[in-house]
Design brief:
This protein is α+β, with helices and mostly antiparallel strands. The protein is built from four helices and two strands, in the order αββααα. The chain is about 60% helix and about 10% strand. The chain has a two-stranded antiparallel sheet with strand order 1-2.
């Protein structure tokens, strides 16, 4: 019977070669950052490919990466919004998110909220 560690060592190069040939024809995006623009807003989003991230045990890496780029992308998205505003004569207001839950929703919808 073959030693499983030795078999794993022999199978790894074959698996990498097969995976490499698949990646040549079908690129994978393990992590991306995008700025999205709609008629009413400009926002930044980052996302990780859950399957790839979990396969390599990269959950901690994803979290750390998102935390590190968040302030940079917030600043850059604001600058992008200013460029768009100058080009088209628009203005955007920054929405500050808080953990107020229903109160924040009511403020956004009705310009007020609940008194507590």
């Amino acid at each position: 019977m073959a030693d499983s560690n030795r078999l794993d060592t022999l199978m790894m190069p074959m698996a990498l070669k097969a995976m490499g040939s698949d990646l040549e024809s079908k690129p994978a995006t393990p992590f991306s950052v995008s700025i999205q623009i709609t008629p009413t807003s400009i926002s930044c989003h980052s996302e990780g490919n859950k399957r790839i991230i979990e396969d390599i045990g990269g959950q901690e890496w994803l979290k750390e990466t998102q935390e590190k780029i968040a302030p940079i992308m917030e600043e850059q998205t604001t600058k992008f919004a200013e460029l768009v505003g100058k080009k088209f004569g628009l203005s955007f207001r920054e929405i500050h998110k808080s953990s107020g839950g229903m109160e924040d929703i009511l403020k956004e919808l009705f310009g007020g909220g609940t008194e507590g």
